[in-house]
Structures are given as structure tokens and as C-alpha cells.
Write a structure and sequence with these properties.
By secondary structure, the chain is of the alpha/beta class. It is built from 16 helices and 7 strands. The chain has a 7-stranded mixed β-sheet with strand order 3-2-1-4-5-7-6, with helices on both faces. Helix 5 packs antiparallel against helix 6. The longest helix has 103 residues. It is elongated, with a radius of gyration of 68 Å.
Length: 501
Amino acid sequence: MIEANNPEINVDELMQKIKAEVANHSSQSQSNNILYKPEIPNPAATLNHIFHHIEALLRDAESRAIVRTKWPDNLNRFPWNFSKILQNFALKLLNFIFKDQREVNCNVIRALKESLALNRQLIEQITSLRTQTDKYMSAVDIQLQGINKRLGAMDIRLQEMDERSSAIDLRQQEIDEHLNTACSRVTTINDSFTHVNSWISAIPERLDAMNIRAQGTDEHLRGMETRIQQLNERYVRNYSYLKNDLTQQKRLLTMFLEEAQQRLPQPFSQDQLQSFVKENQHSLDGFYAAFEDRFRGSREEITEKLKVYLPIIAEAQVGSQDSPILDVGCGRGEWLELLRESRYTARGIDINTVMIEQCLARELEVIESDIIAHLQSLPDASLGAVTGFHIIEHLPFPLLTKLFHEVARVLKTNGLAIFETPNPQNLLVGACDFYSDPTHLNPLHPEMIKFFLNYQGLSNVKLLYLNPVENSPFDQEVPGMQTLSNWFFGPRDYAVVGYKI
């Protein structure tokens, strides 16, 4: 251990030397910082030799502070000398006297060592911080270089913008000159517009006068168009009437002349006279064709009404080559044409030669024949469907009985019959409109016709009430008004549909 009062170790002198050495190096470091201000000093390199010097001083002090076990050699130079026993006693006495001082010296040396170790750690941390700072400074330098480059590019762009600004200024001067010229032209145009506006302001008055005249002209033209349309319709009807009459007369004259040429100079036989009488039955064909055009409705209207039966035909799966459809009393052929458009196999029969010619002109399959005679000529179960629209009201009851009987015979299994006729349950139809056709015989009650088909062997007979009058004036929510509406504005027609099971 180090003795504090050891005459060979002067602790105060040692501390003064350490402080002086540190102060000396600190002044050198400050002078270096002043001299090299732009650079960050390296404390490890600057103070390393100071630490070595302090460590040497501490080692020397530590060697002097340990317990004395040997008599100093420099005391042996005296002429007198102590004995070994006295030397050991003196050493023990000195060690005992300076025991506390040695402990103090040891603690001071230990504290100085720990302080020196702590200073080394601080220097290492400072060095690490300096390394990190150098890295950050390098990154900052790189960023500053990039900023300098960008600033250089911005300077170039600013220079270019200055040049463009100069060009824009020149262009602006040119535009100003053009604008001045345009302003002068606009002034001239405004003067012209003022003159035009004064002329335009007078136009409404002229237009009003022209509109009044145009309205009068339009009314006159509409009246003329209405008159022309009426005349055209009358002309078409008259032309149809005359054409049908001339065709009928031509047929009669042709037949008469042919028979006369064959018989002359002999008189006509009884059979020839009967053929003339039979042919004379077609003398009203042209009239009835014209009557249908006038009172029945246009082809488009009738076709639209007949479309209601197409789903029934489709559901029954008839109308193929094996189960064709026969339309009796086909008339103008609207139903046959609708069936052809739906790709069903169908043909028609009628006795009106004028209407047959119209059907043949539309390339429909139609023959001239009596209804009953034609049905009687067909084999059993040979038809998929028999239809007749506004035909049964023309037949007397015995013929109607034969018609339904033959229809039930010629239908295939699952075949169907459809007959449409005016609905007498509509009082206006049954009491008035029904008799507008002079060939109508008697109105047919719906339930009677339904019973008639059932009686002839058809099944699942049902009634379809069709074509009601629109815009009934009777309030349907008032009790009793529904009945009145049905009497006067109810369905104008009905159809009976029956199946052969």
C-alpha cells in the first residue's frame, strides 16, 4: 500500500504536475482549434500521450505507496548503521504510523485510475460521435452537391425563362398591334351591326304578318288534304266497286258467249240455263267485298284483333303438315296471312269470287267451295283445327248443325275449333249493329253456341269475350254501373273454342 506521508512520494507535487500537464495540453488543443478551426480535432490522438504520462505517474505513485518491507538502500551510506532488528522495527513503526496515509493514497490512486478509465470511455464515445458526424457531414455534402447542381440547373432555366420572357414581350407587342387593328375592325363591324339590328328589328313585324298568312294557308291546306283524302278514299272504293262489278259482268258475259258459240244455232239446254242461274248467285260478290272494306275495318285492324288466337294455336300444337288448319269463310285472308307469317300450314275456303281473287293475289292457299260440301269431302280426323270468323251468323240453323257435326268429324284427336261471332249480350250490337250486314240472319247467344259444340262431341269448350268498347262513361265503382257498362260498352264479339278429346 502507498503511504501518504512517505518522504519519497509528494502527492501534492504529483497532483500539481498532472494539472499542469493537462492545462498544457488543453492550451495546445485550443491553439490547434484556433489554428485549424475548419477541422474537428481528434481528442483520442491529442490526449493519448497525456494518458500514458498520467498512467506512468500513477504507477510510480502506486509503487511508492505500498507497505515498506525493505530498508532503503540510500540509508546504508551513513557511517553508522542500524541492526536488522532495529531496521525491521523502524519499518514496522513507520508502516503503522503512516497506515492511514497509505489508505488515503491508495484511494486517491484508485480514483485517479477510474477517472482515467472514464476519460478513455468518454474519448471513445467522442470518437464514435465524430465518426457518425463525419458520415452525416458526408451525406450533407452529397446533398449540398445535389442542391448545387439543381441550383445550377435552375439558373440555366431561369436564364431560359428570361429569354422566353423577352420573346413573350415581343409577341405581346405584336398582339397589341393586332388587337388595335382588330378593335378598329370591330368598331366598323359594330356600325354594320347597328344597321343590321335596325333592319332585324323590323323583321318580327314582317314575320307576324307572314305567320298569319301561313296559318291561313295551313288551314286551307289541311282542309284541302282532308278533302283530297276523302275524295281518294271515295275514288278507291268506287274503283274497287266498279272493278268487282266489271269483273263479275265479264265472267257472266264470257260464260254466256262461250255457251252461245257452242250451242248456236240450237237453243240453250236446261242444264246451261241452270249454270247461268248458279253463276248469277255471284252477282253480289263485288258488293259484299266493298261492304266488307267499308264496315268490317281495314286489314291492319282485323289482323291486330286476330293475333289473340295465335297462343291458342301454339298451345294446341297444330298447324303442321300432318295437322293443317282450315279457315272456313276466309274472306280477305287476314287470318291465313297471319298464320303463314307464323309458319303454320293453313288453307281457306270461300264462295265469294272477288275475295278469293284477293287471297290468290297474296299467294294464299284458297279454294272456291261450299263449306258443308268441302267438309263432307274430307276424311275423318284429317285436320288439326277448323276456324271461322264471323261466318256462323250467316248460316241458317240446319246448316249450322251440319257445320258443327262435320267439324267434329274431321278434327284429329286434340284438335280444336274456333268460331268468332258478334256478341248479342252487348245490346247495341245485338239490337242495332248486327243488322248493318244484310246477310246476317240471327244473333247467336254465347251459351247456346257453347252448348251446341258440347252436344256435337267437343270438350273443354270455353268462351272468349273480345273487343270491348273503350272509354265507357259508366263509373265502374258505382253499384249497378258495371252491368250497364257491359250492356252498352261490353265486348262486341265473342269466340267459342272447343277441343276434340
